[in-house]
Write a structure and sequence with these properties.
single chain, 45% helix, elongated, Arc Repressor Mutant, subunit A, 2 domains
């Protein structure tokens, strides 16, 4: 999806500048059979977005999309499946102690809780485990299920979803990651990956370097 929707007239202007540039605004107006004043807003939009470049006493050149526009297009083009990483999981019967060990060994902010077959059952965060460790619970005996956020209260991402949509979910729900899931029969989800703030930041760096 292109974040900038050009009008038919703007498309005609770009095609004309591509073909004959450099070309003045007077010449563009004459070729299109329009008044110069009519074209002024269109030329301003195309110049501000970086598609056209205006040089005094010379005219307009075609530059193509600006780096900002290219980055926006790239973010929307990438799918969650393109950048997802391996999920860190524990079984539903795991103890809080085992879950804490898993979290710190894997150096993650959240651990996903699964049933047999990789069916997503819940998620437990670093904050959840910190609360448990400060309480009077026996961490070796208490199952992780007592502290986890259960389905269907989890926010999930799907493989074919855009990275842009997943990033919006992470931002709006103030979480550090999302489980990437596949829908199964009975409205159950199989976890097949995770998408994190780090995944998204790496993509931004990659795109930024490619459009400089």
């Amino acid at each position: 999806m292109n974040p900038i929707q050009l009008t038919e007239r703007q498309e005609r202007i770009i095609a004309l500048v591509k073909e004959t540039g450099p070309i003045t605004s007077e010449q563009i107006a004459e070729r299109l059979g329009l008044h110069r004043a009519t074209l002024r807003p269109d030329l301003a939009v195309l110049t501000m977005t970086g598609m056209l470049e205006a040089r005094p006493r010379v005219g307009y050149y075609y530059r193509g999309n600006s780096a900002r526009v290219l980055m926006a297009e790239e973010i929307r083009r990438y799918k969650v499946k393109d950048i997802k990483s391996v999920p860190v999981v524990v079984k539903s019967g795991a103890s809080l102690y085992d879950t804490i060990v898993t979290m710190f060994m894997e150096d993650v902010g959240s651990v996903f809780v699964v049933e047999d077959g990789g069916i997503l059952d819940g998620v437990v965060s670093r904050k959840d485990l910190l609360k448990a460790s400060l309480g009077q619970m026996d961490l070796r005996q208490m199952p992780v299920s007592v502290m986890m956020t259960r389905m269907p209260n989890l926010v999930v991402a799907f493989p074919e979803e855009s990275v842009y949509e997943a990033a919006k979910k992470i931002s709006e729900h103030e979480v550090d990651s999302l489980p990437v899931v596949r829908l199964l029969e009975g409205d159950k989800f199989e976890i097949i990956g995770r998408i994190t703030k780090t995944n998204i930041a790496r993509l931004f760096v990659e795109i930024g370097e490619s459009v400089v």
